[in-house]
Fold this sequence. Notes:
Layout: E1 4-11, E2 16-23, E3 31-33, H1 34-40, E4 43-52, E5 58-71, E6 74-84, H2 88-96, E7 103-105, H3 107-112, E8 115-118, E9 123-126
Parallel strand pairs: 2-7, 3-6
Antiparallel strand pairs: 1-2, 1-5, 3-7, 4-5, 5-6, 8-9
Amino acid sequence: MGLVRADVTLIGVKGSRSVTALVDTGAAVTVVDRALAEEVGVAYTGRRRALVTAFGHRVEGEVAIIRELLIEGEVLDYERVLVLELSEGVKETLRNAGVSDSVIIGLTTIEAAGLIPDTVTGRLRKTEAFLFTTH
């Protein structure tokens, strides 16, 4: 299974930044490194959230709201992200994969945008929403 990448723009109250980010199909939430979150300007909610990394390490971050997150052309207003300080080891791994070392996109973000990961192309693609009814 190949890596999936996405073109992402974070727009906050101080500015914006466009990156190519890793889509982590094993991550529930989108993670933003603290330095980037401060650069664009996020609103912290006062809530903290812990997660366990793929290597079994427990990390804790602050839940924040980014004013606008554009992912592959889809606009998400007031998207919730987890802000934390990514380790240098994680940043190096991301850079070696050819993606931003400051953003990891989680499943809740891609689902909210109506996108699904395509591991054959390594990109996200639009999916049709459907409603199951018995009528």
